[in-house]
């Protein structure tokens, strides 16, 4: 996978007994972006002029029981659905309703939900010809991830880090092409903590 372009990536895992999620934004076309924390949400903000509707969006939403991470405007809808239904159903319903992005690449929508209790998480994907949602049982030291391009369903990697900032750093340093920024979300029991790292200091 070294040097492969995977575009946007969502991952979940367990480190030192703490459930975590991460987001890695790689981009060929829109490298000038930053992540901004607003309360219990994180936004991706594109800093160049464009009419592309897919490059600025709410990327993380923290709830009492769950953290939601996604590559687009589906983040708050998944969070809202979690108020009424299971993570599996919330992901299936919202990804099915919104579908893939109508851009030149038919870019998939991807999402992750990690639960505070139970060491469980869910990953979801909707592309032009495919919709899937998978539940994963979290394992210490391991991360499960999917991505928009060149990843086959759910793949795994080893991740060991000391805090949310270190998680973001390690996700940013994974050897995939065109890194822009990464976000780490770690469950510290009383609350999720958010770390952000970018290639540029924007
Ligand atoms: N979520 C994102 O940050 C994001 N960034 C770019 N896209 C879409 O993917 C297309 C390809 O972008 P790129 O060449 O940077 O991988 C863009 O034209 C845009 O429609 C995105 N949409 C989904 O991943």
From TrEMBL:
What function is annotated for this protein? Catalyzes the cyclization of 5-formylamidoimidazole-4-carboxamide ribonucleotide to IMP.
Query: What one GO molecular function would you report for this record?
Result: IMP cyclohydrolase activity
The biological processes this protein is annotated with in GO are: 'de novo' IMP biosynthetic process
In the record, the note on similarity to other proteins reads: Belongs to the archaeal IMP cyclohydrolase family.
Note one Pfam family from the annotation. IMP_cyclohyd
Which ranges carry the Inosine monophosphate cyclohydrolase-like domain?
A: 5-187
What is the top-level taxon of the source organism? Archaea
Keyword list (alphabetical) reads: Hydrolase, Purine biosynthesis
Task: Indicate whether Chaperone appears among the record's keywords.
Answer: no
Which residue ranges does UniProt annotate as crossing the membrane? none
Signal peptide positions on this chain: none
Q: What is this protein called?
A: IMP cyclohydrolase
Catalytic activity field: IMP + H2O = 5-formamido-1-(5-phospho-D-ribosyl)imidazole-4-carboxamide
Q: Which SUPFAM superfamilies match?
A: Archaeal IMP cyclohydrolase PurO (SSF75569)
Q: EC annotation? A: 3.5.4.10
Pathway it acts in?
Answer: Purine metabolism; IMP biosynthesis via de novo pathway; IMP from 5-formamido-1-(5-phospho-D-ribosyl)imidazole-4-carboxamide: step 1/1
| GN (gene name) | purO
Q: Could you list the residue ranges forming a coiled coil in this record?
A: none
Q: Which NCBIfam families match?
A: PRK04151.1, purO_arch
Database matches in InterPro entries: IMP_cyclohydrolase, IMP_cyclohydrolase-like, IMP_cyclohydrolase-like_sf
């Amino acid at each position: 996978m070294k040097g492969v372009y995977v575009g946007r990536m969502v991952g979940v895992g367990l480190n030192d007994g703490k459930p975590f999620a991460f987001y890695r934004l790689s981009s060929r076309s829109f490298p000038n972006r930053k992540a901004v924390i607003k309360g219990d949400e994180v936004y991706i903000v594109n800093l160049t002029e464009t009419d592309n509707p897919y490059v600025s969006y709410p990327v993380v939403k923290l709830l009492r029981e769950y953290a939601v991470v996604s590559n687009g405007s589906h983040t708050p809808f998944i969070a809202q659905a979690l108020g009424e239904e299971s993570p599996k159903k919330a992901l299936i319903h919202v990804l099915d309703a919104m579908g893939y992005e109508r851009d030149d690449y038919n870019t998939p929508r991807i999402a992750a939900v990690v639960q505070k209790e139970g060491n469980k998480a869910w990953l979801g994907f909707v592309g032009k010809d495919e919709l899937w949602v998978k539940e994963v049982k979290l394992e210490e030291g391991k991360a499960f991830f999917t991505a928009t391009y060149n990843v086959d369903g759910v793949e795994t990697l080893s991740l060991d880090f000391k805090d949310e900032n270190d998680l973001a750093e390690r996700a940013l340093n994974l050897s995939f092409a065109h890194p822009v920024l990464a976000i780490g979300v770690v469950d510290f029991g009383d609350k999720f903590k958010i770390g952000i790292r970018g290639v540029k200091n924007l």
